[in-house]
What does this fold into?
Amino acid sequence: MAAMTYRIGRVRVHLISDGVFLTDGGAAFGLVPKVLWEKVVPPDPLNRISMELRSLVIESSEGLALVDTGHGHKLPPKRREQLGLRDDNRVDRRLPELGFRPEDVRLVINTHLHADHCGGNTIYRADNRPEPAFPNATYLMQRLELADASFPNERTRNAYFCENFLPLVNLCDGRADGPVRVLTGDTQIAPEVRVQITPGHTRAHQIVIVESEGETGAFLGDAAAYAVNIERLSWVPAFDVEPLVSMETKRSLRDWAWRRDVLLFFQHDFAVPAGRVRREGDEWRVEAAEPLER
It folds into this structure.
C-alpha cells in the first residue's frame, strides 16, 4: 500500500505500511460474537482476519521520527508462513517511497514491545548478531514495558522476543550516548511530539501525539487498533492484558478526541487509516479523513 500523507499544523506525517498479516479473528475481538465482528472484518475459512500493519513517520523539528517498526526481517520461514507475509517490503524498505533512508531516522518510538510493533528495531548481521536497523536513531521505550517484555509470563511470552529490544539496551552498556532512551510515563519528545501512557493492551502501552498550530493528531497503536474499537468500547481484544482498564482508556481517548477534533491514526484498520470522532446522540462513529495528494 502506498504511503499516505497528512498535515497537522506545520508538521507533515506519513502512514507507511509494513504489509498485511493474518491473525485469529476471535483473539482480535475478544468476547464479541463472531456474528457481529465478521460484518466488520470478514474471516477466512480458518477464522483468520487480515490486518494492516502501519507505522507513522513524523517530520519533527528534532529530526525524522518513526513510530513502530513492524515485523522486521528476522522472522523464520515458518513464522512468516503462519502470518501470511507475502513479501519482504517491511517498513525500512518503504521509507524510500517518501525520499528517506533508514539512516535518516533520528527517533524510533515503540508504542509497546510486541513483536509486530518492534520486530524491525533490529536486523541480523552476517554473523547472526542483531544490530540497530536505524543506526543513527535513539530508540524510545517505556521502562515498565521494557521490564514486562524482558520478564514475560506464560500469557505474554509469545508476544515478546528479546532480539527485538534487548540488544539495543545492551549496546547502551551504561553509556549516555547509547541507542536507547528509557522513558518513565508521559514525556515530551520534541516540541511537537509527546507520548502518553494508555494502559490496557499492555500495562505501559503509549500513544504518540503530534501537536502544532492548534491541531492535534494521535497514533493509537494497539490502544485502539480499529475505528470500531473507539465506536464500541466493549469490543476489547483478547490480547489486552487488562481488558477493563483498556475499555476505560478507550473511553478517555474517545472523549478527548471528540472534544479536541483530534485526527486519529489506526494502525491495523483496512477501511479507516485515519479519522475523527463524531457523536450523534448516544451513538459514536469515526469519520474517515482523506490524506493529502502527494
In short: The chain has a mean pLDDT of 94.
